Amino acid sequence: GENVEQHPSTLSVQEGDSAVIKCTYSDSASNYFPWYKQELGKRPQLIIDIRSNVGEKKDQRIAVTLNKTAKHFSLHITETQPEDSAVYFCAANTGGFKTIFGAGTRLFVKA
Amino acid sequence: EAQVTQNPRYLITVTGKKLTVTCSQNMNHEYMSWYRQDPGLGLRQIYYSMNVEVTDKGDVPEGYKVSRKEKRNFPLILESPSPNQTSLYFCASSIGGINQPQHFGDGTRLSIL
Asked: What value does the mean pLDDT take over residues B15-44?
């Protein structure tokens, strides 16, 4: 069946460094790729998304890249801050109207 | 305020006792969905609804039922809960379907003893 693989499961960076999280999807019909941030005890919230007709999208310190040929997309956070510490989930829609999430990446930003 | 509201937020119950988790959104969204979140497994989709009276299975539908009689409400029903359904549950909605951002409720933590 369809799946989304996310790596790494845990990422620790020094404040000010960059963080990169990578996801791979299996359904070639997928055309929407959101990223959600979940702080401890809170609900997931969208931070950025990208559609299949775009290769890259930026929003201040956050960027997402998409390689449709290789079926992978990545989240890039630059100049990380302690408040970036959270669990990040990638997701992809499917041709069958479902949404598949990756297993999540726990990001620690050390001050 | 635009929001997705789930109730209850916490519930401890026993095996076999039917329960319903309610979900309501005030954004006139067409698409609604239920997920369960378990450590190391991310969010897994249980059921989704594209519109009123239109529902379909996600990846882990066994043991769950849903209904969509009104656009704003999408309750999750556990007819005979079992301990393996102990989890954190999220309801979500989006305006246009699966290629739009989803707005999540605050979650419901279910413990089934």
From this structure: 96
